[in-house]
């Protein structure tokens, strides 16, 4: 049974992510943990006038959160596959990333699914600060569902890579599971500023990737563009890609795609779900 963590702040974006997760995993046996974190800030912690007893925290934060979580369970019951899905609600109080990490360990979480508002116009931070922190700082596969993303059957997954890093079986296993479940095509996407020429290490890592997915429908595409984000946008638009998968190992490459954009027409971060994979520690 797959253990899935669904962090929620009770916003429309987090509800959209919950709906996506239920559709995405509708045919899989899962236990879902719907988590709300009443966040504690460093400012509050360093304020000598702030003194909250356990009963205060329970009355002010925990009880109202539990009421809202029960309301989410009622909404879920209208369309969830109750034969395969089980749900538990969790309320925590503390620092956001610490709470996420604790739940991942305690509940042996296989996948985090969370929503994000995304960027508009020339705003540079593409994904919300909480989702951004999770995909970088929490070593657990995470599916980031943008605000304008609606579920559709996964037919093609784009895997942007510069082939600079070796990816282990355990890291890629969640992606392989998705490809198997949906019979999806996997498209490796390599973007360079000039004519592509792989060095020895890149070629070796490319061969390993292709060997790993040898039983599935895969293809490697080479694009030339001075801007990585623009190349990915063009590829997604031309092929109707349903998901983007990345390994959060090469942080510079990873952050170029996920966190910054210089061009208003880059829209993949508000429409396409991102599967972020991590090396096991």
UniProtKB/TrEMBL annotation:
<protein>
    <submittedName>
        <fullName>Nucleotide-binding universal stress UspA family protein</fullName>
    </submittedName>
</protein>
<feature type="domain" description="UspA">
    <location>
        <begin position="3"/>
        <end position="146"/>
    </location>
</feature>
<dbReference type="InterPro" id="IPR006015">
    <property type="entry name" value="Universal_stress_UspA"/>
</dbReference>
<dbReference type="InterPro" id="IPR006016">
    <property type="entry name" value="UspA"/>
</dbReference>
<dbReference type="Pfam" id="PF00582">
    <property type="entry name" value="Usp"/>
</dbReference>
<comment type="similarity">
    <text>Belongs to the universal stress protein A family.</text>
</comment>
